[in-house]
Amino acid sequence: MERIPILKMGDLLLVSIQVDMHDQLALALQDDLTDKIAKTGAHGVLIDISAVEMVDSFIGRMIANIAGMARILDARTVLVGMQPAVAITLVELGLTLPGVRTALDVERGMALLRGVGRRASNVVEVEPVPLETSDVDAGEQE
Amino acid sequence: MTPASTTRLPELLARHEGPILERWVEEQLATIGTKRGLMSDAELREQSREFLALVRQAAHSGGLEIEAAPWTAVRDFLGRISASRAVQGFSPAETAMFVFSLKQPIFEQLRRDGGSGEGVFDEVWHTNVLIDRLGLYTTEVYQKGREHVILRQQEEMLELSTPVVKLWDGVLALPMIGTLDSARTQIVMEALLQRIVETGASVAIIDITGVPTVDTLVAQHLLKTITAARLMGADCIISGIRPQIASTIVHLGVDLSDVITKASLADAFALALERVGLAVGRAVQRR
Fold first, then answer.
1. What are the structural domain ranges in chain B?
2. Pick from B227, B229, B233: CB nearest A103
3. Which domain holds residue A24?
4. Residue A9 phi/psi, 5° resolution?
5. Residue B186: its chain A contacts at CB < 8 A?
6. What CATH number does domain B165-275 carry, 3.30.750.24, 2.60.200.40, 3.10.20.70, 3.40.630.40?
7. Which one, of B142, B61, B144, lies nearest residue B98 by Cα?
C-alpha cells in the first residue's frame, strides 16, 4: 500500500503530500505521523500541501485532526502552501482549521517552526512575528 | 384546427406581393414620419421587401407557427432588424410597428379578394395572430439584447471593481468599492488568493472605505475571505471602517475579535510593514 513519506530533519518532521489524498492514505498518514512523533520526540511538524489540488470534508477534517494530535504530542504543526481553491473549499465547508498555523511556502513554514521551537538559540535577528494573535492563543491553551 | 390547411395567406402573399409591399411601405413612411432621418426610404423599402419575401416562403412551406423550423429565416431576419434599429435609435414600439403595420395592407387585399363572410373572418384572424407573434418577437429580441448589455456591464463592473494592488514587497491591498454580495465576494476572494500565491505576500490589507453598508452577510463574506487567506498563510487586516459601520457591526453582534482591524489604510499599512519586518523612518537631512 502506498504511503506518504515522513522525513526527519533535526527535531522537525517534514511531510510533503505530492498526490491527491484519498481516505485510506489520510488515515495511514495520521497513524504514521503520530507514531513517528512519539518515537522521535519531534517538536515540530511541517506539512506541505502545495501539490494538493482538491480536498473534501473528510480530508479537511483529517488535516485538522493530524494537527490536533501533533499538538497533544507536543509538536507544533505548520501547514504550508495551500492552494487558493483548496482554501476556498475548506472555508465553504466550514473547516477553518483553528489552531493550525499556516505559511505560504516551506521556507516560511520552517522559519515559523524554528522561531517557535528554539527561541533562545541562533535565530536571526529579525524573528518572524507570530502570524495571528488568535492562533497563538489557541496554540497555547493546549 | 390547423391553420396551414385552411389559410389562404401563402397564396394571397404570392399573388399580390407587389401591391401589398407598395401599400405597406407607404403606410410605414406615413407612421414613422418623425424619424425619417434615421434610415433612408430605400433601406426601408429593401427591408420590407426582404421581410415580405421571407414571410411568404415560410408561410408557403409550413404552417403559421413562428417557432417552427420553416420560420427560422424570418426570426433571424427580425433579430437583425431589431438589433440594427435599436442601434439606429428606434424605440422598441416603433420596431414592432414595422411588423404590425403589415396588417392593414393584407386586410385590404383580403377584402378586395372577397369570399364568404366566414372565410374572410378566419383569414383575418390567422393573419392577425401571425403578425402579432412576429411583432412581439421583435420586442422580445430587443429585450434580450438589452439584458445581454446589462449582464455584460455587470461583469465588467465586477472585473473593474476588484483590483488587488501591491503596496510593498509582501504587502497586498484590496480596495473594495460598492456593495458586497456573494458573487462579488467570491471573485474578490479568488483574486486575492491568486495574488497571494503569485506574489508570496504575507500580509493583505482589505480596505472597505468604499463599502456603503456592512450587514451580517457582508461581514460573513469578509470573514470567509480572511479565513481563506489565513489558511494559505497570509494575514489580513481590515481597514477603512467608518464610525457608523463600526457601530453597525457592534449592534449586529458580528464577532470581529479574531480579525485585525484598523481605522485607516495608513494605520493598516504601518502595521503590515511592521509584520514583514520593515520600518519607515525620516530621511537623514544632508547639509
1. 3-154, 165-275
2. B233
3. 6-141
4. -130, 100
5. 88
6. 3.30.750.24
7. B142
Chain A contacts in chain B segment 204-263 (CB below 8 A): 224, 227-235, 258, 260
Contact yes or no for B233 and A104 at CB 8 A? yes
What residue has cell string 473528510?
Answer: A58
Best CA proximity match to B112, nearest among B5, B10, B6, B15: B15
Q: What is the mean pLDDT of each run of 10 residues along chain B (287 residues)?
A: 57 81 82 66 84 82 75 86 81 83 84 73 83 87 87 81 86 86 82 91 91 83 89 92 87 86 91 88 77
Residue A1 within a domain: no
DSSP percent split of chain A into helix, strand, coil, nearest 5: 45, 15, 40
Q: For chain A, what is the domain count?
A: 1
Query: ipTM more than 0.90?
Result: no
pLDDT digits (tens, 9 = 90+) for A87-129: 999 988 888 888 788 999 898 899 888 875 444 333 334 444 4
Residue range B3-154 forms a domain whose CATH class is: mainly alpha
Q: Which of B193, B224, B233 sits opposite A80 (nearest CB)?
A: B233
B196 vs A contacts (CB less than 8 Å): 84, 104
- Three-class DSSP labels, A47-109: EECCCCCCCCHHHHHHHHHHHHHHHHCCCEEEEECCCHHHHHHHHHCCCCCCCCEEECCHHHH
Q: What are phi and psi of A16, to 5 degrees?
A: -120, 115
A4: CB partners within 8 A, 6+ apart: A15, A16, A17, A19, A25, A28, A29, A32
